[in-house]
Amino acid sequence: MVASGNAGSLCPADSFRRRAPFESRMPISLQRIAALPVQALNWLGGQGTRAIAALVFFGIVLPPLGELLKPFVTEAVFVLLCISFMRVDIAALRDHLRRPGIVLAATVWTTLGVPLIAGASCVATGLDAHSADLYLALMLQAVASPMMAAPALVAVMGLDSTLVLITLVTSTALIPLTAPLFAYVFLGAALTLSPLGLGLKLFSILAGALFVAGGIRWTVGASAIKRHKGPIDGFNILILFVFVAAIMGNVVGSLLADPLRMLGLTGLAFAVFFALLGVTALIFRKVGHEQALALGLMVSQRNMGLMLAATDGVLPGTTWLYFALSQFPIYLSPQLLKPIVGRLTARQPAPAATGTGEA
């Protein structure tokens, strides 16, 4: 009787476990239709750096779509960070935390070194007096934290996104203190930044994304996330488009109005990007070429959208325009640097054991 009772009590659960998956009970035609979005995302994710480069041009030629997506920029940034947290390599995370020197050095460089050098250079060249709007743009770029999409872009290139993510979190946590300080020193009291408001916003975004990503990993498992790398990459590219389209909408009009000025600002945006990338990679070259390049990409990708939010968007036209043009090197760099990353990866020997990196 006991056995019969136990069998009866377990019967519903057993029958639930033995049920065929929902997809296998669907008609073949419906299965194919249901699989189309996943196949499309998988294809898009397979395009990698080419798709990221295309985002910029789609953002330019579709300004109405940019206006439509502009209210969702904050949500897009949150989803990008969730994806980055969700895909963290736990083994690599533990390895970096056991050797925090690289993370600490990179954090100090991006939060203190970059703003100090940028501010001193602008003042020394007299840019603050000759072009106040451009000076404001460059300083807001320098004091900003790295982009929250940086780990996603680095991952698409096949580099160490875990190191970038850890450094992103530590440097972002300091921004409520460092950004207002440097803004006051180099820009004066005219620019109003709220450390408390910015800090609370950053904390809520980071904590919320970590909570959501942890829930996803706990529910589906890390192995499932790795198996579905292609569709996740494709979804990541779609979310990146939201931010790009929102900020690139006015580029065409400005180009037609003053092409020479646009070319000059675009050249400056590329020069600043590659200067930050090159100097950072040179500073951290001893930790390994791949890690140094990943950190260089992170430092060169500044979160100017966050500074727009912090200033409530009350910025001069030249500052806005420079922010938009700075998206070109950010989203074109994965495609431009793809040959370099390919050579670095090809030269990298297969690891014989774990935990063999330099301290």
Automatic annotation (TrEMBL):
Q: Which InterPro entries match?
A: Na+/solute_symporter_sf
Entry keyword set: Membrane, Transmembrane, Transmembrane helix
Origin superkingdom: Bacteria
Alphabetized Gene3D superfamilies for the sequence: 1.20.1530.20
* Chain segments annotated as coiled-coil in the UniProt record: none
Q: Where are the transmembrane segments?
A: 48-66, 72-90, 102-127, 133-156, 163-186, 198-216, 237-257, 263-284, 305-325
**Is Membrane among the key words of this record?**
yes
> Is Membrane one of the keywords UniProt gives this record?
yes
* Protein name from the UniProt record: Bile acid:Na+ symporter, BASS family
